[in-house]
């Protein structure tokens, strides 16, 4: 029985369920100092003066710095994705020096011997602000004479990025149907359960940084370039990390400042955020206005699609802020064939927290738009929403298929996934119930929402990233070290923060090397140990990092084969390798295990000429293509037409993520993804008031759903292996989030069609649903 | 003016412990930083997420909304105290692992404490009672499906409930070729 494909219980759980963990905030070092940040109460203001003197006299305070105090050494926060040559890229000091541009932006910091003392002293800092007008609305921000976020730039526009293929004018000319809609992707707060935390320890000229980050390797490079600490003197460790969802794919000002303070003061320094600080200043997600036009023939066949986006960058461009909408640019056409497609995105500055990657990053926005449009098209033509999709999707025998965006989808079977989902959902039965409730004018109406999604993940082929002007590659690294006792260490550059790498990677290595699962230890998240890598985001860990591990295992087996041949006095080509044992073909009793060979290469007493002692190897994998998971999600929602309350009655998700390493982990990833996507549809929104103050600074105001807010999910899979990697796997981390949001909103709108409702803005709160009903009825 | 501090003594996981802390020290910080019991996590510091839940004289409380000084002389159980002294996992811990009821694990200690008390007080909760019982704890990774499954697997009434309702927990039909160990 192979390990790959087995629902192995996770090895990492043992420490997580006993409290025997190492989170960054757990770290206590001798002489440690604590930082607290004073943050702007204004969305936009000039800093006239910062007086820190009184704070310095407070008990336990060691030092106080304003942005001006650190101006010479704090550098600027990096943006790694300059999407157009003329992109407006403002300076972004970790602590504001002359102007604050979002509420919560740091203006000063206190270093004290105790976290409480540091927080206390903040009130003694006197900041003189001269308020400036907030810039909160994207459309108003682009108007002539608008107040500016960055007055020196002369514009609130960061960039306009365009992609077009095919003759769009021809597609719209004489089209039987043209659907024109505007959808809003509200601003979200990623809300990982572990707040950010960073610790920096100076040791001579070496600096060790622990951070609750998804990206220890990228953070190391960036901290080196921002602070001037030479890269070889900098070690970054991501210990146990409590969720990320994109929010910890960032180089935060607090990380930079903690490092600078540790260097300056020669002491270990720690900063851990409060949840309210986090809601304000962990980067936000989504926030787009989508203006969409779709042209189709009378039979529902799509002719062309025009997408015009406004994307809220917030006040600054952080690590990959401007690139997020571009990850969606290629996904609006989704699984559908069309002749022409045009995409324009304008990045707009506002006086809000910068946006950046949040689970799905660009693809949920695109999938929402096209899947909502498909339901609108079906309604327009009085077709079943499944039928209109069937008429447009790429058929299973048409793969590999080059899309209108120039992507090549390697594999897929949309028919199979849809068929399975329809059966599990009991689609016809629910449609009959819907008709019955409509007939009876039931106060609780039933709606059925469809989402037949795909997404591009497994970031990413380095050459593609280069062509999009991204600042790094997309490969991943792995190493295998066979130890003298025959046990195995696996190193991976892709570190986990909940995904279960320690289990899944051990399963892969166990099969590839023929060693027991229990003999494999997976090491990650420390640049001094897993020394190379590009970290964890974009559903890349398995499809890029896992494949690198396969490559490293193959190299180890190849070397072991040479040693085995020598020790068994046979020709290497006469050896078979099965279940971890090399045997001479036809003489099975004459053999040696790879674990014995590891011992022999350690002793090195009798190695073939030219073979170095030790049995280990490393490999990198740079994917030739993205990964394209797909699936069909169906949602049945009961909508109370008197109260606007939405209850999800049934949710079926059939995902095709190719081959599966660990079904238990896959199921968990889908569950969590669904929760976040459904929650965007129903509950979550980061709300700023008219002055630009964030209103949702606590978990009481920002509605992360609890167990009773979510339905039971029915999940299943179809399995169409990816053809672009040897494991046949596709990414799964973001699929649930990408697919589910439009399924829920489609269901709500479907329930309310008889009342003249054609859209409900997210989150679809009872109030919004009720108001949409009143407006619909009035029409 | 330096803050006045107090000697605070309590029993944690059956062991008498004491440390000196100011009156405003949160129980969560006292456990984590003064006693070095870092299994209790702080997720929001405003009593919503439930990550910091511990058992105070057996009842679940938010340790981030509790001043350490107010629990002088009382008994606290944290995640570190749930397993038997010989390391055998408690049934709740075991069920969370078996059902894949955790991913990043940050919310897990709070859930484990909440569920331990829930099942002690109601050994046969229905699915509705489980939902109600764990709705004071937030998890961002699991969508709660496998947490509910874990708790129901320990409910003495679950098989009856499942039969009556036709759905005991998250329904999952796995693809062929899966092997569960």
Describe what you observe in this structure.
The complex is a heterodimer of chains A (779) and B (181). Chain A has 779 residues and is an alpha+beta fold. Chain A has three domains: 13-132 and 193-243 and 248-281, Aldehyde Oxidoreductase, domain 3, CATH 3.90.1170.50; 361-456 and 626-778, Aldehyde Oxidoreductase, domain 4, CATH 3.30.365; 475-621, Aldehyde oxidase/xanthine dehydrogenase, molybdopterin binding domain (Aldehyde Oxidoreductase, domain 4, 2-Layer Sandwich). Chain A contains 20 helices and 29 strands. In chain A, the strands form seven sheets. Chain A has a seven-stranded mixed beta sheet with strand order 4-6-2-13-10-11-12. Chain A has a five-stranded mixed beta sheet with strand order 8-16-15-14-9. In chain A, helix 10 packs parallel to helix 19 (735-752). The longest helix of chain A has 28 residues, at 541-568. Chain A is globular and about 90 Å long. The N and C termini of chain A lie far apart (63 Å). Helices cover 31% and strands 16% of the residues of chain B. In chain B, helix 2 (91-98) packs across helix 5 (145-154). With 181 residues, chain B is an alpha+beta fold. The relative contact order of chain B is 0.13. Chain B folds into two domains: 5-81, Beta-grasp domain (Ubiquitin-like (UB roll), Roll); 91-164, [2Fe-2S]-binding domain (DNA polymerase, domain 1), CATH 1.10.150. Chains A and B meet through strand 1, helix 1, helix 18 and strand 29 of A and helix 1, helix 2, helix 3, helix 4 and helix 5 of B. Strand 1 of chain A pairs parallel with strand 6 (179-180) of chain B.
How is this structure best summarized?
The complex is a heterodimer of chains A (779) and B (181). The longest helix of chain A has 28 residues, at 541-568.
